[in-house]
Amino acid sequence: MDAVKAIQYYTNRMVTDVSGMKVLLLDRETTPIISLVSTQSYLLAKETYLVDRIENSSRDTMRHLKCVCFVRPTDASIQALLDELRNPKYGDYYIYFSNILKKSMIEVLAENDESEVVREIQEFYADFYVPTPCLFHIGLVPSVHPLFAEGHSWNPGALGRTVQGLSALLLSLKKRPNIRYERNSAMAQKLGQELEYLMNHEAGLFGTKSIDGHAQLFIVDRKNDPVTPLLTQWTYHALLYELIGINNGRIDLS
């Protein structure tokens, strides 16, 4: 269960399945997802000569290049894709989404592909951030995406993003776990129930059981854990994170 290898597999698929010279377009959230597991030299070796943001409307038109788009299925990214397809800057488009795509989104993309430049649309479940092989996070910053609503209940946006990130992780690892959550935590229970509902609703993707049959997902609530935040890990990585801060593998010394 190596989370880094899971996303590297999808990254390799994107840049090798599309042969020839190409450009890689990412959105605001998929950019750090890819940058954590891949390098510019690796992408260049796979004939990816340009990496840019799909929101950048000032890109040059290069119809001789193929375009690989890897974006999250959000309203903002879909709108950026629609703007791109109405005025395509590249010859062919291969679109990959980092999570489960709604049927209505596919229909909207098809309606706006008047130039018929889209060659492929796929779901690649890489919708989480992996600083290390055994650690992942969803990318929720409390100052930007508050976790709590009134009292000790989930903020709906944070809950939805957490369910999406966990489901992508499970799909990338090909696991359908038994879900266990902390009995005294209403938030842990809510997260477990929402994730279980999604797995049942998308049974065609998750299957009926995990490959090994023994996968377990334990959901615990940090509010009921007063000890762990007091522990100090005496490693360089842990000390740098605690004293300075590490954001997606980068340390800002300013």
Structure explained in plain terms:
- This protein is an alpha/beta fold and 254 residues long.
- It is built from 9 helices and 9 strands.
- Report on the biggest sheet: 5 strands, parallel
Helix fraction, binned, reads 25-40%
Strand % is 15-25%
**Overall 3D form:** globular
The order of strands across the largest sheet is 2-1-3-4-5
List keywords for this structure.
Vacuolar protein sorting-associated protein 45; 254 residues; alpha/beta; two-stranded antiparallel ribbon; five-stranded parallel sheet
Chart the SSEs and their pairings.
Elements lengths: L2 H15 L4 E5 L3 H6 L4 H6 L2 E6 L8 E10 L3 H12 L3 E8 L5 H10 L5 E6 L5 E4 L2 E3 L18 H17 L5 E4 L4 H16 L1 H4 L9 E4 L16 H8 L11
Parallel strand pairs: 1-2, 1-3, 3-4, 4-5, 8-9
Antiparallel strand pairs: 6-7
Protein name: Vacuolar protein sorting-associated protein 45
Organism: Coemansia furcata
Summarize the structure.
It comes from Coemansia furcata. This is Vacuolar protein sorting-associated protein 45. About 35% of the residues lie in helices and about 20% in strands.
